[in-house]
Amino acid sequence: MQMLYISLALFLLANLAVGMWRVLRGPGVADRMLAAQLFGTTAVAILLLLAEAAKSNALRDVALVFALLAAVTAVAFVKRAWSMPEARDID
Amino acid sequence: MIDFFSMLFLLAGALFFLAGTVGLLRFPDLYTRLHALTKADNVGLGLMITGLALQAESLSVAGKLVLIWGLVLLAGASVAYLIARGALLRGVLPWKR
Amino acid sequence: MEALDFALGLFDILLVFLVLSLAWLVMSSEDLFRAIVLFVAFGLLMALVWVRLEAPDIALAEAAIGAGLTGALMMAALDRLSSVKPIQKVAASAQRKQLSLSSKVLPLIALVLIVLGLGYALLSLPEIADGLTPNVKENMAQSGVKNPVTAVLLNFRGYDTLLEMVVLLLALLSVWSLGGERKLSPRSTNPILGSLCRVLVPVLILVSCYLLWVGADAPGGAFQAGSVLGAAGVLLLLSGWHVEQKYLLWPLRFILILGSGVFIIMAAVLLLIQGGLLTYPVAQAGWMILLLESAATLSIGATLAALFLGGVPKSRVDQ
């Protein structure tokens, strides 16, 4: 099982590396943000896999904090940073 | 037996992450990319967590895993809605063939 | 076993490659929003690096601050910058034209010297060094906690944390001194955002308490707990949560200085009784550290949320 955990973590990291292209390319700010959201979830999965491989409870706490704060970043994006001159602070 | 199922779930989860990434790269507009992203978020992580929870050494560890998934589900769904709504209000047009 | 090491090695190599290229992309990105997203991704990967270096304490802090709150803080800064951006762009492009040969060569020479110095320092390090680990291990019994990192940060070198609290307070003061009162944003009418807040905020507060409590014998502690608490504050601010005017003046300032205040009082009292700065009596060390950390958590949370607001808070009621 150890081998599977580590290979899957490697696989997910490679996924993340490929997804970087969307951050660089855009075109819109929201597209970049979506990629960041995917990175967050991927990092949670990688952490949980590493936690299981190392039987470490602390790493699960890191994953928990990731999961919580990714949501806060995304809401901050929608409410603050997503600026288009013609439509600001709509909701 | 447990190992087998757990392996199955983990691999299926990884497949959904791959699908999400491919979708994020290949889909033509924001809304379709959002769709791809939520697949990885909800189903991909869900399957992985199911696979890992089967291996968990105690009930509290499994509970924490399920809690993480629940939070990601909730946040993912809400954020997908907020981004899609924001995009519509800002006049981002859905893609047409 | 060999295959496992190989897979882990590949993981590490890919991770290092990603971190380095992200660092470069963040610095070279002209689009500020792109730079923020890249920086958030950089924080995520840095947390993974700390995990691989077997430093879960720092991974937790990086996850909470680097990948989490910094993104939100920078987005708030970008929001504020949007009004001054045109001026800044003109200045930047004017500067670029004036770059002379000497202003290109001098930084290069300085950089080469720094690289040489760092390289020399790195190569002259002993190959195997115990550092302070044996010292910490020897004195763990007297620290009042079971997590060596907490023991160092709150007991053996308690003044580190004290000064960090002051630094955070100074950061907030300098943001406030930039001027501009910030009105709290109007209450959101969006039902989804509302329900997200109603679930996430209690969970964030609960996780913050958990991290504070678990810090005594596992990775966790005041900074991690404080930034999770700060995230709860940021979420509340974003959904247009209202604080009554009367709480914005003294009660807010009281919470902001609570951490540093309790720290300084504790240090002074201990200096008088024990004859040393922050030298706790062994029997009481446990609850004293918990008290300090609880006060610090509240202050850090409030400070981070206030930083996100970006100016002296002002209620919307009396505009």
How would you explain this protein's 3D organization?
Chain A: Keywords: Cell membrane, Membrane, Transmembrane, Transmembrane helix, Transport. Chain A: One of its GO terms (molecular function) is sodium:proton antiporter activity. Chain A: One of its GO terms (cellular component) is plasma membrane. The complex is a heterotrimer of chains A (91), B (97) and C (319). With 91 residues, chain A is mainly alpha-helical. Chain A has one domain. In chain A, 82% of the residues lie in helices and 0% in strands. In chain A, α1 (2-25) runs antiparallel to α2 (29-54) and α2 runs antiparallel to α3 (57-81). Chain A is flat and about 45 Å long. Chain A starts with a helix and ends in a 10-residue tail after the last helix. In chain B, α2 runs antiparallel to α3 (59-89). Chain B starts with a helix and ends in an 8-residue tail after the last helix. In chain C, strands 1-2 form a two-stranded parallel ribbon. Chains in contact: A-B, A-C, B-C.
In brief, what are we looking at here?
Chain A: GO terms for molecular function: sodium:proton antiporter activity. The complex is a heterotrimer of chains A (91), B (97) and C (319). By secondary structure, chain A is mainly α.
Main sheet attributes: strand count, strand direction, barrel closure of chain A: none
Question: How many structural domains of chain A?
Answer: 1
The arrangement of helices and strands of chain C along the chain is HHHHHHHHEHHHHHE
Identify the strand order in the major beta sheet of chain C: 1-2
Layout of helices and strands:
The complex is a heterotrimer of chains A (91), B (97) and C (319).
Chain A: H1 2-25, H2 29-54, H3 57-81
Helix pairs in contact in A: 1-2, 2-3
Chain B: H1 2-26, H2 30-55, H3 59-89
Helix pairs in contact in B: 1-2, 2-3
Chain C: H1 2-28, H2 32-52, H3 56-81, H4 85-98, H5 101-123, H6 133-139, H7 148-156, H8 158-177, E1 181-183, H9 191-214, H10 222-238, H11 245-248, H12 250-274, H13 285-309, E2 312-314
Parallel strand pairs in C: 1-2
Helix pairs in contact in C: 1-2, 2-3, 3-10, 3-13, 7-8, 8-12, 8-13, 9-10, 10-13, 12-13
